[in-house]
What we know:
Alpha-Beta Plaits, 3-stranded mixed β-sheet, 3-stranded antiparallel β-sheet
Amino acid sequence: MSWIKRLLKPIAIVAPYVLRNSQTVAYPTERLMFKERYRGRHQFFFERCISCSICARVCHSKTITMVEVEGREKTFPQIDYNTCSFCGYCVEFCPKQALEFTDVVEMAVSDRSELVYPPERLSVVPEIKDLVPRMKRRIEAYLTDKEMKYRKVKDV
């Protein structure tokens, strides 16, 4: 009789979790909608920047360097995502809000040199549909009193 208990005990433990809603998102076809203050890839605005270089000075990991841009007389920030910790100091301390965070997290590359974003590349934020072509819907996470659940927000 004890062998039956040993056989059924793991099944009794796992069964309630199997019957619950999924705790994951099927990423290529579903993508989470991030909260407003989420720290994804930066977006840069040329017209707001005054070239004060506060973003570069406040960056504790020395990720931001000021570079010249062809056709413009000021220097602008270049971000190396190899070392960026997404701490948010550059966005927080910018006096003119020339840097902002986006919800873009799809930054996988095969060559590390592609993670260095010059100002021109930072100023253009690609559409999510271009980054994740197989995406069919956006999912929102919400909390209940016992667990986190997901609901479909919109089809793409």
